[in-house]
């Protein structure tokens, strides 16, 4: 793998792959210190014609991902945007209690919005980010103009599609090179469909330790590995219950029920949200809307330009 000059060096390449013309917006890394001393990190992008414009859209990624998963979507969106590394992911600090559940993460996201935005946002959250966005909208309605949930509902079966990701991260916790991580992603059918895209994803989602070994940036890999090791040894897992199952419980429906902003669920035709899940969402959220797009669970990577068009359309509806 060729190491780029910086984390934004891939943007022109990503724009070309998506057949996007025009100037690439300026991106910058920002960080804020949370009340307990942890760091919350994010990527802030202006629009091409207003480089310093405050964000209008805030995007929250899924478990095991990071803010760069939204790069191409942001390039296609054409609006000033903020993409946050959720706690335990990317350049944000890990939590000592490993409590990566929506209601715990939402207050940290609120601190970020207060620091980096100057008005209520269209908040787009995929997977864990979607449930966190719902908890944020429920607890801090002043920060959310519209909620867009991407391919997740609280009712998704944690023993169905999500197990692929959990199994992928349950391997070794460190590696000799990033190339080994790319090979593993491709063996699991992950990585975006090409080795080049997998290399970008691994670069954004890993770091080189002082001893030269490579490790995932996100805490989920450590937790998944510990759980798998305990199961193999016939021992109780280090965490009292499955973190994935915890974020898909009834509390998620309670959060959604409290949201006063307009709500849209966008599901991938080949994603985790089944027809039954979508029907349950519609039943519980009669004022919301449900849409389907071609793609899988990570729509922001499978169909970034299509997702961007839909987000832009929803943004125009709010205006």
From TrEMBL:
Superkingdom as given in the UniProt entry: Bacteria
Domain AB hydrolase-1: 59-309
Stored SUPFAM superfamilies: alpha/beta-Hydrolases (SSF53474)
PANTHER family listed in its UniProt record: HYDROLASE ALPHA/BETA FOLD FAMILY (PTHR43194), PEROXISOMAL MEMBRANE PROTEIN LPX1 (PTHR43194:SF2)
Matching InterPro entries: AB_hydrolase_1 (IPR000073), AB_hydrolase_fold (IPR029058), Carboxylesterase_BioH (IPR050228)
Molecular function terms from GO: catalytic activity
Protein's recorded name: Pimeloyl-ACP methyl ester carboxylesterase
One matching Pfam family: Abhydrolase_6
């Amino acid at each position: 793998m060729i190491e780029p000059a910086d984390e934004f060096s891939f943007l022109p390449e990503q724009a070309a792959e998506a057949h996007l013309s025009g100037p690439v917006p300026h991106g910058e890394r920002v960080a804020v210190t949370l009340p307990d001393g942890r760091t919350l990190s994010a990527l802030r992008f202006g629009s091409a014609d207003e480089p310093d414009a405050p964000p209008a859209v805030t995007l929250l990624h899924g478990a095991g991902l990071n803010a760069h998963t939204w790069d191409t979507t942001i390039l296609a969106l054409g609006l000033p945007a903020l993409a946050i590394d959720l706690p335990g992911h990317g350049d944000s600090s890990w939590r000592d209690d490993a409590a990566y559940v929506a209601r715990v993460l939402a207050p940290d996201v609120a601190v970020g919005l207060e620091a980096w935005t100057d008005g209520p946002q269209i908040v787009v959250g995929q997977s864990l980010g979607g449930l966190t966005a719902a908890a944020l909208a429920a607890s801090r309605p002043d920060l959310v103009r519209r909620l867009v949930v991407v391919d997740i509902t609280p009712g998704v079966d944690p023993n169905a599609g999500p197990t692929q990701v959990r199994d992928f991260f349950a391997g070794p916790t460190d590696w000799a090179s990033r190339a080994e991580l790319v090979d593993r992603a491709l063996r699991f059918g992950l990585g975006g469909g090409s080795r080049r895209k997998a290399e970008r994803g691994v670069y954004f989602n890993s770091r080189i330790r002082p001893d030269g070994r490579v490790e995932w940036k996100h805490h989920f890999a450590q937790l998944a590995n510990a759980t798998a090791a305990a199961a193999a040894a016939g021992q109780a897992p280090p965490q009292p219950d499955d973190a994935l199952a915890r974020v898909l419980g009834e509390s998620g429906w309670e959060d959604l029920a409290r949201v006063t902003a307009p709500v849209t669920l966008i599901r991938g035709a080949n994603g985790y949200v089944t027809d039954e899940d979508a029907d349950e969402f519609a039943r519980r959220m009669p004022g919301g809307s449900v849409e389907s797009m071609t793609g899988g669970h990570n729509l922001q990577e499978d169909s970034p330009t299509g997702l961007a068009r839909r987000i832009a359309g929803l943004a125009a509806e709010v205006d």
